[in-house]
Design goal:
The protein is α/β, with parallel strands linked by helices. The chain has two domains: 146 residues, Rossmann fold; 172 residues, Vaccinia Virus protein VP39 (Rossmann fold), CATH 3.40.50.150. It is 27% helix and 30% strand. It has nine helices and 17 strands. It has a seven-stranded mixed beta sheet with strand order 11-10-9-12-15-17-16. Strand 10, helix 7 and strand 11 form a beta-alpha-beta unit. It is elongated. The structure holds S-adenosylmethionine. S-adenosylmethionine binds next to helix 6. S-adenosylmethionine (SAM) binds next to helix 6.
């Protein structure tokens, strides 16, 4: 994954060889474009919606105006359109943008996503199994130039482009909600990797006296969850980075993807971190696809592990009574 990121960033840097002025660098997970551009004499601001460790994500970029921008392709087309609109709103008319991605993650179709938002989108570089498109900010600003223009209202909840299950209720999440024990009054509940907060919302409807904390690494998920769970504590946090204290119940439909590829890193961190963040007799309840061998992982950290529910595709697991610190 990291290799692919470095590879596409190299393709982008091939195109960034002259000073540009004030530049907005968007979604560069390698964090290598900023020093590269500063080395050319540019002033650089970055924007990424996901938090990477202590490096906080933000829902929308600073106002600008910028002389140029770069954008690393995102997995969702709608999230791309939103990021491109945010970039267009922050760029000066006539300013260039370079949009880049790997060939095996849809890099060839990036020009089509830019259509209508940037003038003359065209491939300007292909190398490192990646592709770089260039376009020009039109004279008129984009139609949807503010974050508020991108709010998705669905089933009485608020979402944004690029959020899980198109800001709706996923079948795995629905199974988890049905199987999850009702929190006790005054107990502390953590909805880990909350997305727009659907799980916490459902538990809150059943147990309004419990105390809810929600967390997610995506600043737009956090923005949505804050609107959907008014009064709850909603924390922008890459896994456990910003989570303090202990909980009686931790619930999660954890991510198993990083970009377009599969990754169990967050799932593993959830399980090992839950051990440290649960109170005595606390419980971790999570849902995963059946093919993911989660039971041995849970067994390494917890004394008691049981399957609470299943259907043809998903399992809901409950793990409780943490035992001794797992070895690594
Ligand atoms: C499968 S979705 C579940 C969302 C929501 N709980 C639901 O069921 O609708 C997983 C969520 O994990 C979040 N996520 C991904 N990586 C993360 C990380 N490192 N730390 C915290 N959350 C993360 C994503 O932003 C996404 O909202």
């Amino acid at each position: 994954m990291r290799d692919r990121g470095d590879r596409v960033a190299r393709a982008a840097k091939d195109m960034l060889t002259r000073p540009l002025g004030r530049v907005l660098v968007i979604e560069d997970e390698t964090r290598s474009l900023k020093p590269h551009l500063e080395g050319l004499g540019d002033t650089v601001d970055t924007w990424h919606r996901r938090s990477w460790g202590e490096d906080e994500g933000r829902p929308w970029p600073s106002d600008g105006p910028y002389d140029a921008a770069t954008l690393r392709a995102l997995p969702s087309k709608e999230a791309m359109r939103m990021a491109l609109s945010a970039a267009a709103a922050a760029l000066k008319p006539g300013a260039p943008i370079w949009v880049y991605g790997a060939n095996d993650e849809g890099g060839r179709s990036l020009g089509a996503v830019m259509e209508g938002l940037f003038d003359d989108p065209r491939t300007v570089h292909t190398k490192h199994r990646s592709r770089v498109f260039e376009g020009t900010r039109p004279q008129t600003p984009p139609d949807k130039a503010r974050l508020e223009d991108w709010v998705i209202a669905r089933d009485g909840r608020v979402g944004f482009p690029g959020l899980f299950a198109k800001s709706g209720l996923d079948p795995a999440t629905a199974l988890l909600i049905r199987a999850c024990p009702t929190p006790k009054p005054q107990s502390r509940v953590l909805d880990f990797a909350c997305g727009l907060g659907i799980i916490a919302q459902a538990l809150h409807a059943r147990a309004p006296e419990a105390e809810y904390t929600l967390c997610d690494a995506d600043a737009l998920a956090v923005e949505a969850a804050r609107r959907n769970m008014a009064g709850a504590e909603v924390i922008l946090s890459d896994t456990w980075t910003r989570i303090q204290g202990r909980f009686n119940l931790i619930v999660s439909n954890p991510p198993i993807h990083e970009g377009k590829g599969e990754s169990y890193t967050v799932l593993e961190q959830l399980i090992l971190g839950a051990h440290a963040h649960l109170k005595q007799r606390g419980r971790l309840v999570l849902v995963t696809q059946k093919r993911i061998k989660v039971e041995p992982l849970l067994g390494r950290a917890f004394k008691a592990v049981e399957r609470l529910a299943e259907d043809t595709r998903f399992d809901v697991w409950q793990a409780s009574k943490p035992k001794a610190q797992p070895s690594s």
